Automatic annotation (TrEMBL):
The chain crosses the membrane at residues 35-54, 66-86. InterPro entries: LemA-like_dom_sf (IPR023353), MamQ_LemA (IPR007156). Gene3D superfamilies: LemA-like domain. It comes from the Bacteria. This is LemA family protein. Belongs to the LemA family. It is a single-pass membrane protein.
């Protein structure tokens, strides 16, 4: 049998293809098959025991045993659903904690930014919009949909400060400014690592809620949906295709 995907002789997209994250949450749903599966766990073995008892197909003790213990698979599955719900809730809290960690690093970057802007503003006529932007992001609290946008704007402000330092070389000699820029570089790496951790947890969540039967049934009845991972903004993607040197 030939390879379904053949990188040697298969069709090649010479123009390339951009990859985007779909901004859509998919609800978890179950059909009648899952309902029948749960009913079967409770009823199939007891029904076999009842038939065997009426027809004497099995010894009476065996038939009674099937009747009494036949619901055991259903009971076990109920416990499995309890544990599955607990695990999903635990994973949901981890997603919140990972998102909060991103906010924490963003807030630290704003603190660093606030300090360095004050120093640079005293030395040169810094753009007033920069000061307004710093004030706007000083709180460091953002909703999920706003974290990317906030981080991008903070990156932009630091870029403008870097340009200001290039235009005024004497600013680089200030140890406080140099230290602030080093802190910013460190925090940006931490933001990137925190985003990766967040996306890994979101990916785990999106897989687990569709793990049939236990977790999918629990997730569907709890009304859970998939979560959207962090994505790069359109401006960042466009900048990544630019010529830097």
């Amino acid at each position: 049998m030939a390879n379904e995907l053949d990188e040697v002789t298969g069709p090649v997209d010479q123009a390339g293809r951009d990859v985007n994250v779909i901004n859509k949450q998919i609800p978890v749903q179950i059909g009648t098959g899952s309902l029948l599966f749960e009913i079967a766990l409770w009823t199939v073995i007891p029904l076999i025991g009842a038939v065997a008892l009426l027809t004497d197909a099995l010894p009476r003790n065996y038939s009674l045993g099937l009747l009494v213990l036949g619901a055991l698979p259903g009971v076990v599955f109920q416990f499995m659903k309890v544990f599955a719900l607990a695990n999903l809730r635990k994973l949901q809290q981890k997603i919140q904690a990972d998102a909060s960690q991103i906010d924490n690093y963003l807030e630290q970057r704003v603190v660093v930014l606030n300090n360095v802007v004050g120093l640079v503003a005293k030395a040169i006529d810094l753009d007033k919009d920069v000061m307004k932007s710093v004030a706007a992001y000083r709180s460091g609290h953002h909703a999920d949909a706003e974290r990317n946008q906030a981080s991008q704007k903070i990156d932009g402000i630091f870029s403008r400060i870097n340009l200001a330092c290039e235009a005024y070389p004497e600013l680089k000699a200030q140890a406080v400014i140099a230290d602030a820029m080093r802190q910013n570089s460190y925090l940006q790496k931490e933001v990137t690592a925190a985003r990766t951790l967040y996306n890994d947890t979101v990916g785990m969540w999106n897989q687990d809620i569709f793990a049939w039967p236990t977790r999918q049934i629990v997730a569907a009845r709890a009304g859970y949906t998939t979560r959207i991972p962090f994505t790069a903004s359109a401006e960042t993607k466009a900048a990544a295709r630019s010529v830097f040197f």
